[in-house]
Amino acid sequence: QVELAESGGGLVQAGASLRLSCQFYGATFGTYIMAWFHQAPGKQRDMVAEISAGGSTTYADSVKGRFTISRDYAKNTVYLQMNSLKPDDTGVYHCAARHYSTYQYNFWGQGTQVTVSS
Known about the structure:
The structure is a single chain. By secondary structure, the protein is mainly β. Helices cover 0% and strands 54% of the residues. Strands 2, 4, 5, 6, 9, 10 and 11 form a 7-stranded mixed β-sheet that branches. The model has no long low-confidence stretch (mean pLDDT 97).
């Protein structure tokens, strides 16, 4: 049973930084690909960053150069460092996990709210 718990969201001004955390429970962390998804109000949930079991990363174009995903194997935790935040970054951020043998993200955290004021 994989369980994910996000934290670190908040209300900040444009240009500020936040670091989101996602703690992973219930399985072998190193066999899961991890990602962060962003859901703006009234819009679909889109992946913004992904990190493989081996540490390779991918990013949505909208966050390249501003966000960094990382994972700490000793703490079973995934982070999303968010710099130069923009109002369009506002929304709920969900941590997600998928086993390396699967295509779809099938484990999700409950989300943490990020609000960026202009």
